[in-house]
Amino acid sequence: ASNGVVKIGSTNIQLYGDNIPDNSLTFRVPPTVTPGTYSLYVDGPALVTNKVQVTVLARLSTSPAPVTQPAITVTYPDGGETLSLGSDFIISFTPVYNKLHYFNLVNENNAGWDLLSAMDTSPVIGQATDKQIMVISKTIFTKYNIPTGRYKIEVCTKNSESCDRSNSYFTITSSANPSTSPAPVANPSITVKSPNGGEQYSTLESRTITWSTSNLPSTATISLQLSYRNKGANSNVEDVIISGIQNTGSYLWTIPSGYGVGKEPNLFWMRVIAGVGEKVEDYSNSTFTIAQTVTPAQSTAPVQSSAPVSAGTPNLSASSPTITSSVTGTTGQIYAGNMTISSTVSNAGNAPSTPMSGYFQYSTDGSYFSDWASVSIPAINSGSSYNVSYSWTGGNGIYYFKLRLPDGTTSGSAYVNIISQPSPSSSSSVAPSASPSSSPSPSGSPVSGAGSRSIIANVFYAIGDFADSLFLR
Q1: Smallest Cα–Cα separation from 341: which of 429, 241, 253, 448?
Q2: d(CA 29, CA 11)
Q3: Number of Cβ within a 10 Å radius of residue 118
Q4: Which of 75, 243, 261, 473 gets the highest tally of CB atoms within 10 A of its CB?
């Protein structure tokens, strides 16, 4: 066969090899043959004894599967907002990790302005986070002579591999006459009143955060976040101060000491978010300052105290909370009623700590925690510890608990399944009811037994907490 002719249909086939046995042959199908079923002829004419049926298949592609590019998502401003020519503003976006990001301002005629060039700023590197912040200086408006009007923000990686724009137009108004393009009256809105720019705060002091709202439903809850920049960074991060509180227009905040270390002291913004089924939010119009509180110098007079005086640094940590009930359930469960949560705070540093306030936090999914109950923590000497606890009357549910210290340190989480008592028990326990008894815990916390809330109200609060978790991730 090595000296013969092989055909597929009418196409001659080249044979390979000089030492092929007489009862076999090797050949390659030319790429010009269309896939299909053919007669294979060997050694001359199409004799019946020399013909077989063969099927030619299409060549398999060796090209790699297409790679789905990570997507950028612009989250603020995303349409409907009103910004001023006289103020800095913030772009919030979901980044592509480790890629360079570029920012453009685009008007209704699709004309654009390069915002980084206007500020002489390098592209922003995407961080490993669900949300990243870029601060745009108000100087771009005068440098480019940008007029008032309706715009979108466009964020792209290098060579426009991934891009996104605001879903709809927002408005830029003159600082002297911002009422020329008022937002529709029917739209819900929220406005940060304090701190709104220029304030001088210090760590460990208490300040009142204030805001105003319009056209929000009565069931809307408020979440507060602090936006700041670490030293040496070119983009902002945001920390949750508290979430799911009632819309009272104010909240008293004790500033943790951690915000005075490793942060740009004059680059802080307050963010207020309303959970109303859609994200309604506002930032401070410009930056305010948080400075580190300076500890007064020690007196040279004799100190009538056994506490050691040291120039070192305290190092606090907290153990995972323990939750107990007046009536114990099965393993991993406790019965609803009178409950106590406790945690041990230890000082492994070389100096005593100062008195402070901590917060027990709760979560319904183990990942998104909210401040719940404030506890006082006294000064703890080096090498010592202190047990903090909080008691409340609670109803059924599955919860996770942590203890948060003022510097942002948190303990490990503790899981608990609070269940109904199977039958009436002794007077030392509290039987569950559709309307749990009053509780000393804050209003709005599901672990409080909802105070005097009904079951339906509990359901709405749970839905609100879930919506808040989606917006703040």
Answers
A1: 448
A2: 9
A3: 19
A4: 243
